[in-house]
Each structure stands twice: as structure tokens, then as C-alpha cells.
Amino acid sequence: MMSPSRYPRALGLAALGVAAALGLSACAQDAGPAPRGGDTRYVAGSGVVESVPAAERKPVPRLTGTTLDGEPFDLADYRGKVVVLNVWASWCPPCRAEAPYLERVYQETRSKGVEFVGIDTRDQKASAQAFERSFKISYPSVVDPYGELVLKFNGVLTPQAIPSTLVIDRQGRIAARALRALTDTELRKILDPVVAETP
């Protein structure tokens, strides 16, 4: 029989156990699938994939920088083209899963005036370059080692959640966004209608 002095302690431990279980459950629901490889930098996005009606689109923020190849970059140079802007990092497991799909859609749509641009965020340059070689990524990525470029999209993207993707129309407005990894089919679903719009 449990002594009276130990009984309250046992109740307290049981309550802590229930609270911990509830807390873990909430974290699992909020954070989504856990990253493989024990990398704690990866934060899952909200899962939102949505298109924006033309009348409600907002201009994309000014984006300039340097690519992984050391070339100057200015998103304004792409005005008049549809742009797929993808935020990624070499240490992000869903980014690795998504990369082949992005390259595939890029190759399929570049003849239609579609450009792809990456933002390599909170990453090591050498690791990012190895990632691009491994997945044969042929479009440019802008270096964003401290996450400052992604912050320009605050309110549109979640800075800590990657991968994330924006589709930018020919007028330089945000036409669609995805706050999770996409397959080629899912990307085409939000990209093709923008490509089909009258210039």
C-alpha cells in the first residue's frame, strides 16, 4: 500500500506525464513530419498551397544579391517573365525530395518564358553548391546565408519554414505560393494557369 506521503508525489508525476504527452502531441501536429538525419534547423511549413486572383496580387519585394556562381542577381531583370521562386537549403530533407521535381518543371517550361530562381537560405556555400551538382540544378540560386532575403517576404512566406515556393506573374506580382514541398504535378497546377495568362 502506498504511504500517504508518497501519494501526492505519485499524483504529481502522473499529471506531469499526461501534460508532457499532450505537449508532444501538440508539437507533432504543429510541426508536421520530423526531419530525417536529426537536423533541428528544419521547420515544416503550414502546408498552404494557394493561387491569388489577378485583382488581388501584390508586387514581389525587391530582390537583389549574388548567386552561388558569384554572379550579380536582380529579380527586376526577369520582369515580363513568369518566375518560380523557391526557398531551400542543402540541409533540408524536403528540399532534397523536391529538387528533382523543380528541375523537371523548369526544363519543361523554360521554352514558354518561365524562369526558376532559388534562394539558398541559412546555408554553407560549399554545401549548397554540392547540392546543386548532386541534383543537377541548372537554374540560379541567390545566396542568403543569414536569412535576410527571406525576411523581405515576411507575411507571404514563413522565414523559418522551408521549402517554400512563389509563382510570380509577368507583371512582377505574387500569383501563387506553397508553404511546403511540391511534386511536379502540384507545381504545374499553380504554375500553368499563370503561364497561360495573356501577357
TrEMBL record:
Transmembrane segments: none annotated. GO terms for cellular component: cell envelope. The keyword Acyltransferase does not apply. Residues 54-196 form the Thioredoxin domain. SUPFAM superfamilies: Thioredoxin-like. Residues 1-28 form the signal peptide. One of its GO terms (molecular function) is antioxidant activity. Pfam families: AhpC-TSA. Coiled coil: none annotated. InterPro entries: AhpC/TSA, Thioredoxin-like_sf, Thioredoxin_CS, Thioredoxin_domain, Thioredoxin_ResA/DsbE_sf. It comes from the Bacteria. Keywords: Cytochrome c-type biogenesis, Disulfide bond, Redox-active center, Signal, Signal-anchor, Transmembrane. It is found in: Cell envelope. One of its GO terms (biological process) is cytochrome complex assembly. PANTHER family: THIOL:DISULFIDE INTERCHANGE PROTEIN DSBE. This is Alkyl hydroperoxide reductase/ Thiol specific antioxidant/ Mal allergen.
